[in-house]
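hey so i finally got around to running the thing on that chain from the lab meeting. sorry it took forever, my laptop kept dying and i had to restart like 3 times. anyway pasting the input first so we r on the same page abt which one it is
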Amino acid sequence: MPPSKAILAPLSVAATLLAGCAVGPNYAPPSLSEPSRYLGQAAVDQRATSTPSDLTTWWASFDDPELTRLVGLALAQNLDLAQAQARITQSRAQLGAATAVLLPQGVGTASATRSRLSVATPEGELLQRLPGFGRDGELYELDVGASWEIDLFGGLRREREATQAEFEAANAGAQAARIAVAADVADTYFAIRGLQARLAVAREQVETQRQLVALVQLQRGKGVASQLQLDQAQGALKQAESTVPVLQASLEQAFNGLDVLLGAQPGAYRGELLAPAPIPTAPAISLAGGPADLLRRRPDLIVAERRLAASNARIGAAISDYYPKISLTGLIGAASGGAGNLLTSAAGQDSGVAGLRWRLFDFGRVEAEVANARGRNAEALAAYRLAVLRATEDVENAFSELVQSEAQARALADAERSLTRARDTSAVAYKGGVVSLIEVLDADSRLLATRDARAAAATAADRAAVASFRALGGGWNPAAPDLHVADSR
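ok and heres what got predicted. didnt touch it at all, straight out
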């Protein structure tokens, strides 16, 4: 057996025997104590009048084709999602690099050199006196080399484990971005529909107040109404008019925000939404699985958990620096002073080197690196636990807002029916000469104010439903093989 093989063979056997060893703690997902039900679950269950929505495509449960179309456009065109996909590509490349480090690295080299020795140097002057000296020379060389760092203590494998977890976090992060985009589109869409409804009410209110001012001016001219009454009517008109620009500005901003979510210049899709449409009714919400299901459904929690796994693996990578690093390097090839002899047995050459690197006198720094890795792991654990708490808080807040907004909308609907009857009664009384037109217009004004409040409450209910779907992690399928990243650990 050649000397190089005699050196490398035993070390290769040792590397195989120790391949399963990896220093550092093995990762185990943290145990969390979750309640069996949400605090607001009973109220949300009671409001269900239809089959609970499919969380994967929850926006379709609003039964609004325009909303469904816009969400589809956003998921295809949104630039935040494009960035998230690019981050996946980067993370996949880093995982590939971390995997490649575990394997032997090979390189092939070839060279052809022609040289002429100077005879004006002391060395050249001496050599030219020798018999057969020639100034010109050639060297041809062809080699294949390989090197391998034997991962005896698992430092490289722990680093790959960390990179794998980061890759899974990037995948989950892309799903979190998908959820956010779908929810933002729906939230903005409902804001637009609500603002359009409120603008219509505000303009009707302005027209009512203008009629009131005209009536008071007429009565003032006849000496029936006072200047105070006219001033009050004009002030009420200006107050009504002042609400229109505020609502219009909010509507313009919502249009612009929706266009950006769709990956387009502001104004690109505005024309398609100018015609007002009814505010949809919030659908029933599926609560199957309860709080414990959040750990599976919410991608942001999967991101936090995978980053915790990555930080745990990097503890092992840091600990591995306490131990020696062994590498093997081998070369086989040929070298000749002439191209014709390069492939002959006489030109053959080979070498084998076993190397050892050990931070023997640097344990203080290694200890600091291990302590830093443990600190990062403790930070990641706290961040994960906090993310779980905040996820539950998001759900509870969204449920509370949904239930209370719907209760407010129902109360306002009752008030609107009562005020409608009062307005109709005052109109009949006016025709009979029992009340003045001012009382009729005042009844109209109260009715319109209630309609405005009801539109705002209905919009708030829809937006709270969107927040509920978002908080529950709706908008993706965690059971799909290409998305279920958390189970790959």
